[in-house]
Design goal:
disordered C terminus; 72% helix; 8 helices; elongated; mainly alpha; single chain; 2 domains
Length: 179
């Protein structure tokens, strides 16, 4: 009985590895060429590692490498743009918080129109008083010595998420893991 259980578990593991390998190969573009796809699929179905490796190696060429390099460059550019946006949003938010009150709130509201994902934050911060609490929370989250309970309480009072920043809205915190 014990041997049957082990054999069954090994069979399930093998099936899982084949499926994972197929999904992985598909996800990384290895199945784009119909001929190559058939070779890979047949090798997997026949549990033929050497044939699978040969079919996979046929996909490794200068053209595919150049495509990967191009995708990598585009991803790097997008990440850089997002980082620049976060920094710009942080600066705008800091300026608005320094002003505080109605004037800071109005400045902050105006800047939100250009920030992706800001709608949720705008729904919960509805007036200058809420905005001042948000600025206090922002300051607490950036202070590694601040009281995590105070961060939690203020976040709950404003109906904001705990344990993370506020997306791309200029409110990121360094003390986030403490609450």
């Amino acid at each position: 009985m014990k041997n049957k259980t082990i054999v069954a578990m090994l069979a399930l593991l093998s099936i899982g590895l084949v499926v994972a390998g197929s999904v992985s190969a598909y996800r990384f573009g290895m199945w784009q060429d119909p001929e190559n796809r058939e070779e890979i699929q047949e090798a997997i179905e026949n549990n033929d590692f050497d044939s699978w490796r040969e079919a996979m190696m046929n996909r490794i060429n200068q053209e595919n490498f150049d495509e990967i390099v191009q995708r990598h460059g585009m991803i790097r550019e997008r990440r850089q743009e997002k980082q620049e946006n976060r920094e710009q949003n942080q600066e705008m938010t800091d300026e608005a918080c320094e002003l505080g009150g109605e004037e800071g709130y109005e400045m902050w509201l105006e800047s939100l129109s250009e920030r992706p994902g800001a709608r949720r934050l705008q729904e919960v911060i509805q007036d200058a008083q809420d905005f001042d609490k948000l600025c206090e929370l922002h300051e607490l989250r950036n202070d590694p010595d601040s009281d995590p309970d105070k961060i939690r309480d203020l976040s709950e009072e404003l109906s904001l998420p705990r344990g993370r920043g506020f997306g791309n809205c200029g409110f990121q915190g360094k003390n986030i893991g403490k609450n």
